[in-house]
Amino acid sequence: MKNTIIALYCRISRDDDKNDVSSSIKTQKDLLKQYAKRMHYVNTKFYIDEGYSGTNFDRPGFQELIREVEEDKIGVILTKDLSRLGRNYLSTGYYIEHYFPSKNVRYIAINDNVDTSLQNNDFTPFKNIINEWYARDISRKIKSAYKTKAESLRVLLHLMDTVKIRMIIIISLLIKKHQKMLNLYINHILKEIQFTGL
Questions:
Q1: HEC string of 142-187?
Q2: Whole-angstrom Cα distance, residue 131 to residue 6?
Q3: Sign of the torsion angle spanned by Cα atoms 135, 136, 141, 142
Q4: What is the predicted pLDDT for the residue at 126?
Q5: What Rg do the C-alpha atoms of the chain give, in angstroms?
Q6: Residue 129: which region, alpha, beta or left (left: phi > 0; alpha: psi -120 to 50)?
Q7: By CB count within 10 A, which of 29, 37, 89, 129 is most buried?
Q8: According to the model, what pLDDT value does residue 1 have?
Q9: What is the number of other CB atoms lying within 10 angstroms of the CB of residue 85?
Q10: Do 79 and 9 contact (CB within 8 A), yes or no?
């Protein structure tokens, strides 16, 4: 364990960033540093994925972490909670229950009290399911919000078109009105020219 890295993994998606200040990268880093210090872990390294969804594992920080696990450089992986590792029930479960143990890597999700070196992880699969449901629910809400915004934009554009048409009509009427006045003025000047004999 002395020569291995203690991986401090942080992840936040664009959606998490908007909805939860407590999940910010800075907050995660502070929590992980404090925990590592309390546990006397010294050889720590951050792996960070900012703006990446937890619904898949094709993230640069996570992929770097896995490469170093494959190279036997990692001894422990710390996350703030299970959802930071991932929000895909099957894949997250695979890493926690199969992959990490097969590589002799201890995984700890601090706020969820998950530690693969202990036998207290019976509730972990249920938490992973809840995390996946949360991601799906957020996705549906975001799609609904975009749909609502698109409909509002369509209504606004229709309204703008209506206003443009009304403005064109008003401008046309003003031009006609001023055209009549201009014609009257030109006729008046022509009459004066003829009267004075210029």
A1: HHHHHHHHHHHHHHHHHHHHHHHHHHHHHHHHHHHHHHHHHHHHHH
A2: 25
A3: positive
A4: 44
A5: 33
A6: alpha
A7: 89
A8: 47
A9: 27
A10: yes
User: Which residue is listed with tokens 């540093």?
Assistant: 33
* All domains in the chain, ordered by first residue: 1-198 (3.40.50.1390)
Give residue 180's identity as a one-letter amino acid code. Answer: K
Q: Which tokens sit at 178?
A: 């001023």
| pLDDT number for residue 47 | 97
Query: How would you class 152 by CB atoms within 10 Å of its CB: exposed for 0-12, middle for 13-18, buried for 19 or more?
Result: exposed
| Rounded Cα gap, residues 73 and 4, in angstroms | 5
- For residues 148 and 157, give the distance between their C-alpha atoms in angstroms, rounded to a whole number: 14
Q: What pLDDT sits at residue 18? A: 53
